[in-house]
Amino acid sequence: MMKILAGDFKRKTAHVKSKKFVFEGLFSKDSVLFADIESIDVEAQDSQTSGGLGTAAAGGLLFGGAGAVVGAIVGRGARKEVTASIRFFDGRRILATFSPDEMNIIRAALFDVQDLTVEERREKRAAAVAKSKERQDVVNEWVGKIGASFLIAGLIYFLVT
Fold first, then answer.
1. ∠ at Cα 75 (74, 80), nearest 5°?
2. Cα–Cα dist 151/72, whole Å
3. Distance between CA 49 and CA 28 in Å, rounded?
4. What percentage of the chain reaches a pLDDT higher than 70?
5. What are the tens digits of pLDDT across the range 101-148?
6. Percent of residues in the chain assigned helix, strand, coil, to nearest 5
7. Which has fewest Cβ within 10 Å: 27, 32, 155, 157?
8. 68 in a structural domain
């Protein structure tokens, strides 16, 4: 889960999915496609070591002194974070921390467009949005036809019975 440190989004956390960021709230859900990223700059890469006190305490409670020692050893670990600033085509920005795995997902998604100019990326994004809108229009047309068919069938059933 990425943590948003600053920027133009209300949520303080988001999920990194295969091609988008998903900002989830109690009653709402918003997403931003990686294709909407204009630029991304890595600000810092940190490694934080945790002491394993929680697992030591749990191991101690369950298995005594030996459990505490094993829990402390198992619980120790380094957690790496990448801090990056991201600017989107619509002008919004965020400063956020990601796990290295999340950052790799973002980099992989942007790999195909990394050599394009910003203008070429904007054109490619606009074409993708237009194609998506065309698909959505077709779906909406079919949903309307199906909905009308069910309405007519319902009215006939109501009149016959």
1. 115
2. 65
3. 35
4. 79
5. 888 888 888 887 777 787 887 787 788 778 878 888 888 888 788 887
6. 50, 30, 15
7. 27
8. no
pLDDT at 33: 83
Q: Can you tell me the distance from the alpha carbon of 39 to that of 6, in angstroms, rounded to the nearest whole number?
A: 16
CA Rg, the chain, in Å? 25
Amino acid at the residue 104? N
Please count the structural domains in the chain. 2
DSSP 74-112: HH-EEEEEEEEEEEETTS-EEEEEE-HHHHHHHHHHHGG
Domain extent, residue 160, equals 117-161
d(CA 105, CA 73): 30
* Domain contains 22: yes
**151 in the same domain as 97:** no
Indicate if 39 and 6 belong to the same structural domain: yes
- Can you give the pLDDT at residue 72? 55
